[in-house]
Automatic annotation (TrEMBL), chain A:
It comes from the Eukaryota. InterPro entries: Acyl_CoA_acyltransferase, GNAT_dom, NatB_acetyltransferase_subunit. GO terms for cellular component: NatB complex. It comes from Hyaloscypha hepaticicola. This is Acyl-CoA N-acyltransferase. The keyword Transferase applies. Residues 2-167 form the N-acetyltransferase domain. PROSITE patterns: GNAT. Coiled coil: none annotated. The keyword Acyltransferase applies. Keywords: Acyltransferase, Transferase.
From TrEMBL, chain B:
InterPro entries: NAA25_NatB_aux_su (IPR019183). This is Uncharacterized protein. Belongs to the MDM20/NAA25 family. Pfam families: NatB_MDM20. One of its GO terms (cellular component) is NatB complex.
């Protein structure tokens, strides 16, 4: 069964089915709670028949600060996927698609221009997932990550900034199909 | 400008403070005060005095601070109050109650004097909130609302604070209804304004306008409103889930549907859910299924339930088909709900599909065929399969056994499982895993559950005939469990024998799809181990041990292929703890990425009773360097989490107010409560103190050191509430959904309980009283006051100090002994007691009780006839008994120093008690020597191998041969070596179990 519900603060006591997986980082409470305090409507859990957490998505809605408005890297009001995770037992069911669609719907509800996310250049599985969900690379952030899990000799890795247009972006000005050509530095990314 | 001037004038004073030249600082302040008096300078003076290291000065400051709230007129200078705030923190840090009484009151008075100073009010509100001074925060929020009427947020701050205060423990009982009622009344008015507004896009300030405001409306109404009022709001077009202001907040739909079901509004539910499901499959103007989430399982469930009540099954059937139509383009996660709704309908409706017995089985099989490639299929189907009749179960079992479920050939030819070709893809392996889990449910878990529930399950009758195999059995059927284990092992072997086809396609971090076969087999083996009761033979010749070792080696083998499967690790921790291989249990624990909040939920798997299993640092290397902490360091690291989490929650409470996330505030408060009263936190304190006392004897463990500060006061009292945040859910479980989980069924030792925490914390304080360390001398008077209160509280709840919830036999005996020790200590100190008519008689009774406990403990040690190798239960007895013996020796020493009038009456008994305690300690040490010598001998690896894979005996050879086929010999030998090393490593801890000291 698939059932979504808001992620509650008390879910931190029961998110081990997702967070004991090595691909999901467990942060301090401040990380989860600051999202719940600001964007509770963008933090959604998928639960199983016995209430087990099968997956969750954390997101936010924001724009670059107003002093940044004239920068070419200015980001208008948009939704951002901060974390999307599905427990090992609940994979291959389409839950990642379901959860990200849920965030997109909220983005539309709050009149955002697009949804974006960062994914490691080496994370081919993640990239394939997001391509399948309709995301495309908008730009490449050079040396965004301070490590490269696929190559211990490197001390950085690029990030792909991927985007999906929302209803407000009627003319598609906030997404592009040739984003791999556009490279920016980490300091350009707000 | 004034601020700058003050800062310039203060510079020399602050310079003096920074160099700890408080005398000079005070002199400078006095000089300025002599010219012009100011509240600020008076406060600065108090602050400087609070920095003094002298206790007398700190006490004087506290007395001064206590008088401040009564001052007339109150302070209006916030900087003066902030200095008093800091002064209080210097003399009494972390005391929220005192802060609230003094500083909270000063801050509120200051806001009252400056009601139009918004920044000041906000600052004071934030401070009061952070210290849990809810009543003052409520008053400030009220002031903000009154003085800034155009600010929409403050209206809700006030309502939220009234409600929060009314539900807090600090709110006097007679005020709860007042503040709750006021919150309800005010928010009700705002709800009315929203409903009456002409334009929902231009609502007046005093109205409900956001999803979070709707959620807080529901929360307050649920607590203080009439039962049906919530539904009235949720059914209103302006306040319900479809209102403009709800912004599609899904929680509102969830609540509305649940309330409608509770109110049995079947026709409304049917119409509403039918409309939602239709919308879910209807494309919008851009050809998108933007409402797809409306086909949530909650909606389907309500739809089917209402259809069953209204005989509308055909509509449901039609709706499921519409959702399952490939042309509808619905995502597979939502389609799954439609398929499951068909299963539900076939089970719950008397008319759907004519609902014959075969139809139900057919519905299960159909779902399994469609979704069997996902692990969740078993969980989805389990509640339905549990409802099948005996005949239907047999029918399903036959289908599952003959493997007609996944044979897709149209001619219906059947194939026999396990067959190699059926396990050639990850999806097919998962199908097989689901099949085996269902077979386990039908043949083992379900019949077991029913036998447990049976009226025949009582102490006089434990014999049953197994419904699956028809053989005689107890609560568990040995034959069925062996069968299930054997088949799962065989199937696992075939799945893994893939020439790397599947394994190579997996990411390093992936779990292998066949893992659950191994886990299932290990579960059966663990259950089989629990069937056996023999204890007098050598540990390695017991059948129990054979099963446990088989489970361990099976899981270790599975771990080699799936290093990130945390369920394998969880099971291994339990098994190795049972076997007494603490270092291997630690290794399994560190294979999981436990951090942050998981230290509260998962740490119990290793740390509970660590002091009596593996209190020392392991000699075996554990992979990551950061994890190579000693047990005490690991526990202290856990305690750091509790300290930091407070600040994290407080910070975000304020952020929630700022961002209007009112509902979230109550969730944070709940988390805060749960962490404050966490059972795992108490466990951490207890275990770290026990280990410290053992490994670093002579170190004074004052009350405030070693973790007590992370617990609220008096957690040992009967009325202290504990929060059980322990995660049992992530432990693997294929048992019946409505029965006990496997985690519970497979416990070799009683679980962590509030009862045990209370008794252990009380014992910790008793140990402090008799602690010979001079460093704790000044605490002892306070501890005697505590002791009196504690024993009085026990009198009021006499049932609390007896009972055995969560306790082993040695813990029960120790707890009873500590209770008697508490009574003797009170008698030794309470002079009123000495005037009792029969002091000697009472003392004799206490002393006799204590002697009896010591003798019982000795008998318990004596029962450890075959202690080599020392399994977990043996280690636990030795450590627990040794601690008890040491404490009683300390008691004897302490009593000799008590007043003569008392000690004269105690002298004779003390001699006997001391003798028994010494004997007990020597007995423990002797037993340790036996274990150490035994393990020094050779041949243990062979013994482990012989025990794990014994020569086939009647009926149980199948598991052994299945394991032999699966396991590589080199791997087996290496693993057996690790187990032996684990036992030898555990023996290192015996060096802390000292013989009794020589008599003075």
């Amino acid at each position: 069964m698939t059932s979504l519900r808001p992620f509650h603060a008390t879910d931190v006591f029961k998110f081990n089915p997702t967070n004991l997986d090595p691909l999901t980082e467990t942060y301090d409470l401040n990380f989860y709670f600051s999202y719940l305090a600001r964007w509770p409507h963008l933090f959604t859990a998928a639960e199983g028949p016995d209430g087990t957490i099968d997956g969750y998505i954390m997101g936010k809605l924001e724009s670059s600060p107003s002093y940044y408005v004239h920068s070419e890297h200015y980001l208008p009001f948009h939704a951002h996927i901060t974390a999307l995770t599905v427990a090992p037992h609940a994979r291959r069911l389409g839950l990642a698609r379901t959860l990200s669609s849920c965030l997109e719907t909220s983005g539309d509800e709050y009149d955002a221009w697009f949804v974006d996310l960062f994914v490691r250049a080496s994370n081919k599985v993640g990239q394939a997932l997001y391509h399948g969900l309709g995301y495309s690379v908008f730009r490449v952030v050079k040396e965004y990550y301070s490590d490269d899990p696929t190559d211990p000799t490197k001390d950085s890795e690029d990030a792909w900034d991927m985007r999906k247009r929302l209803k407000r972006d009627v003319h598609g000005k906030h997404a592009r199909s040739d984003g791999l050509k556009y490279e920016v530095n980490p300091e350009d990314v707000w | 400008m004034a601020d700058q001037l003050r800062a310039a004038q203060d510079t020399p004073i602050w310079n003096a403070i920074e160099t700890n030249n408080f005398k000079q600082a005070l002199k400078l302040v006095d000089k300025r005060l002599s010219k012009k008096h100011s509240d600020y300078l008076e406060a600065l003076k108090i602050y400087i005095r609070s920095r003094s290291p002298q206790v007398s000065e700190k006490s004087a400051v506290l007395l001064h601070l206590e008088e401040l709230p009564e001052r007339k007129p109150p302070f209006s200078d916030i900087e003066a109050i902030e200095l008093y705030d800091e002064a209080l923190n210097e003399v009494l840090p972390e005391s929220n109650e005192t802060w609230e009484r003094i500083i909270g009151q000063l801050r509120w008075q200051c806001v009252k004097i400056n009601p139009k100073n918004e920044d000041l009010s906000l600052k004071c509100f934030q401070e009061c909130l952070s210290k849990g001074a809810h009543d003052h925060a409520r008053q400030i929020a009220n002031s903000l609302e009154k003085n800034f009427p155009k600010n929409h947020s403050y209206i809700f701050w006030n309502i939220t604070m009234m409600f929060l205060f009314s539900t807090s423990e600090k709110c006097p009982e007679n005020q709860r209804k007042i503040w709750g009622g006021l919150a309800l009344g005010q928010i009700g008015k705002l709800a009315g304004a929203t409903r009456e507004a002409q334009d929902q896009k231009r609502l007046p300030p005093r109205s409900i306008q956001t999803p979070q405001e709707l959620l807080i409306l529901d929360r307050i109404t649920q607590t203080y409103g009439k039962p049906d009022q919530r539904l009235v709001y949720l059914q209103s077009p302006q306040l319900g889930p479809e209102s403009t202001i709800a912004k599609a907040e899904w929680q509102l739909w969830r609540t509305k549907l649940k309330l409608m079901e509770a109110a049995q509004q079947w026709q409304d539910i049917f119409d509403t859910t039918a409309a939602l499901l239709k919308r879910a499959r209807t494309k919008d103007e851009s050809s998108q299924l933007s409402g797809s989430r409306l086909s949530d399982w909650l909606v389907w469930e309500a739809y089917v339930n209402s259809a069953v009540e209204l005989d509308g099954s055909h509509q449901v059937q039609a709706e499921t088909e519409a959702h399952l139509d490939p042309a509808a383009g619905i995502d597979k996660s939502w389609k799954r709900n439609a398929s499951l709704a068909q299963v539900k309908l076939s089970f719950e409706s008397s008319t759907a599909f004519s609902s014959s017995k075969s139809d139900r089985v057919a519905a299960v099989v159909k779902y399994l065929q469609e979704y069997g490639k996902a692990s969740t299929a078993y969980n989805d189907l389990r509640p339905f399969v549990e409802c099948l009749s005996s005949d239907q179960r047999l029918e399903l079992l036959e289908i599952l056994k003959t493997n007609t479920v996944f044979s897709y050939d149209e001619e219906g030819r059947t194939r026999i499982y396990p067959a190699k070709e059926d396990l050639s893809t990850a999806g097919q392996i998962t199908q097989v895993v689901n099949t085996y889990k269902l077979r386990f449910l039908l043949t083992c878990a379900l019949p077991e559950y029913e036998r447990r529930q049976s009226p025949l399950n009582n102490s006089t009758h434990v014999g049953f005939n197994c419904a699956s195999c028809s053989k005689p059995c107890g609560l568990m059927c040995k034959y069925c469990l062996e069968d299930a284990a054997k088949e799962a092992i065989q199937s696992y072997r075939i799945a893994m024998d893939d020439d790397g086809r599947i394994s190579n396609a997996l990411l390093k971090t992936d779990q292998h799809p066949a893992d659950d076969l191994s886990i299932l087999a290990a579960m059966c083996l663990i259950k089989l181990s629990l069937l056996q009761t023999e204890n007098n033979s050598e540990p390695l010749s017991r059948t129990t041990t054979t099963y446990v070792l088989q489970a361990a080696v099976l899981l270790e083998n599975a771990w080699l292929h799936s290093k990130y499967n945390f369920q394998i690790s969880q099971m291994l921790i339990r098994i190795y703890n049972y076997l007494g291989c603490g270092s291997l249990a630690m290794r399994a624990y560190h294979r999981m990425p436990v951090k942050q909040i998981q230290q509260d939920t998962i740490s119990y798997t290793l740390f509970d009773r660590l002091s009596s299993s593996h209190p020392h640092a392991s000699s075996q290397s554990i992979a990551a360097s950061s994890k190579q902490r000693t047990p005490v360091e690991q526990l202290q690291h856990q305690q750091k989490f509790y300290r930091s989490s407070r600040g994290n929650i407080i910070k975000n409470l304020w952020l929630s107010f700022k961002h209007g996330s009112y509902n979230t505030i109550f969730e944070f408060t709940e988390v805060s409560e749960k962490l404050t009263h966490s059972m795992a936190a108490a466990m951490s304190v207890i275990e770290s103190r026990k280990i410290s006392r053992l490994t670093v004897p002579g170190t004074p463990l004052t009350e405030i050191s070693n973790g007590f500060d992370i617990l609220p006061p008096n957690m040992e009292f009967p009325e202290a509430k504990y929060s059980d945040n322990l995660d049992y859910e992530s432990f693997p479980n294929f048992e019946v959904s409505r029965g006990a989980r496997f985690e519970e069924l497979s416990r070799y030792t009683p679980r962590l309980s509030a009862h045990r925490c209370r008794l252990n914390l009380a014992a910790e304080k008793l140990m402090l009283i008799v602690d010979p360390s001079s460093d704790v001398a000044q605490e002892k008077e306070m501890l005697h006051i505590w002791l009196k209160q504690y024993l009085d509280s026990q009198k009021q709840s006499p049932s609390e100090h007896v009972g055995s919830e969560g306790m082993t036999r040695s813990e029960q005996l120790a707890a009873a002994g500590y209770h008697t020790m508490a009574l003797i200590l009170r008698a030794s100190h309470d002079q009123d007691f000495w005037t009792e008519n029969d002091l000697q008689g009472t003392l004799d009774k206490y002393n006799n009780d204590l002697c009896a406990r010591l003798e019982e403990q000795a008998a318990l040690v004596e029962t450890l006839k075959e202690p080599v190798p020392a399994f977990g239960s043996t280690l636990h007895v030795l450590y627990t008994v040794h601690e008890f013996g040491r404490t009683i020796l300390n008691l004897c020493r302490y009593l000799t120093k008590q007043r003569k009038v008392f000690f004269e009456k105690q002298r004779e008994a003390s001699v006997k008690i001391e003798e028994l305690a010494r004997k007990l300690l020597q007995q423990v040490v002797d037993k340790c020597t036996v274990v150490k010598k035994g393990l020094d001998e050779g041949g243990w690896i062979d013994k482990v191998l012989e025990s794990t894979l014994p020569d086939a005996q009647e009926g149980d050879g199948a598991i052994v041969s299945s394991l032999r086929e699966l396991l590589d010999e080199n791997f087996l030998e290496e693993w057996a070596g690790e187990v032996v090393e684990g036992w030898r490593d555990s023996v290192i801890g015996f060096s802390y179990l000292k013989p009794p000291p020589t008599k003075a």
